[in-house]
Amino acid sequence: MSPAGTFSGDELHDLSALEQAAAIRSGQLSSVELTEHYLRRGERLGDTVGAYVMMTPELAMEQAEAADSRVRNAADGEPLPPLLGVVCPIKDLVFVAGIPTRAGSAVIDATLPTDDDVVANLRAAGLVITGKTNTPEMGLPCYTEPDVAPPARTPWDLTRSAGGSSGGAAAAVAAGLAPVAHGNDGGGSIRIPCAVTGLVGIKPSRGRVSNGPYGDIIGDLPTSGPIARSVADGAALLDVMAQPRYGSPFSIPPPRHGTFLAASRRDPGKLTIGYYLQPGLVQTNVHGDVRAAMEDTVGVLEGLGHTLVESQPPFDETARPAFFTIWSILALLTPVPPEREEDLRPLTRYLREAGRQVSGLELASAISFVRVAARFALQRTEHLDAVLCPTLAEPPALVGQLRDDDDPAGDFDAQIHYSPFCAPYNMTGQPAINVPMNWNADGLPIGVQLVGRSADEETIISLAAQLEATCGWLGLRPEIW
Question: For position 8, what pLDDT does the model report?
């Protein structure tokens, strides 16, 4: 901040989302000024990192002006939302009223008159939507290389993928095009991009964030969640996203101690933490850089006074066919005109055709298998406060490395070997957070993931914040910054 108490344009994106919001509430900064700054950065750098499918400057400026008006007209002492006036782009798999949704596809173009519930919560809290972020077709793969936008790239090495399916959202935050972003996660789609871009990504517990009114789909794997640079920013955004909505099919208790933001400021105490290095869904080699990141993280946690005990992954390979069955049905649920099926990507067509072969009994059996196996997995770890495991089995992949249009079955198999640690926690419904505390010798982020008990985001948020304070990753910036 300058001596005059105002901010220069060059330093606005160095501020955390909570710092930006505090400056807006105090009058040191306007939401309009902040929004214009991020719109300019998005126009200049968005295609470089593949952040956006489209930007929405008119909507953003309207919302920014409304936020500034809300600050001006607030009565003395009136509490204002903690992220009022802060920019938060929306992943292009959910609906924003009046804004097209492409879902990463040349075939899909839908504009609805209503918001998805999570977007409505963001609007109510006064956040500013600068655009729809890049995603692969229907959010199906763990890389973001759609036909409708440039590939999403990690700002730490533009030859490498920003992951998927929230690749554009993570690229935007990591490149300083937004302080926080909306993501969603059905098999790792928040945690994978955050692992390869050096960000905090929270997959909430099943039922914590409403998927309504359109997104409650078979298997209950996906949920929306926050992407941020800091644990506190992510926790504050989760507080906004998690506001209850009438009609949710799930009942989940609110945070025990007030807010998730409060959890990020609280000492976690001394915890018993399980850890494992080998995935269960598939037998695969875990890269040496990932092993080193896990060893370093275990050492730091032990140094902080926590007890680390070896544990096991929640599932073995017998769960993989059930996950594939559910995933193929999710691919099939998106309506596509029959004459446009051939215009879909090869991987999408492969998954949809697999879905067509699934009988009602097979689908019911897959869902039942996952629920029963998840129950036993949760019982095996009920004595643990949290579990630590890798987020990915390898360092960030090159753009195009996982994609194989000539062999979509091989493409899907390569993704499972690359990311075998995330999907199990969509199956159990547990909360999980990517912690960006490790970088390899090439300067690439190597994520690890903390998993909490069901409905207990608070413990892993407190623990991640403790690691953040200890390891100091917030000072790291990619060159593009």
Answer: 66
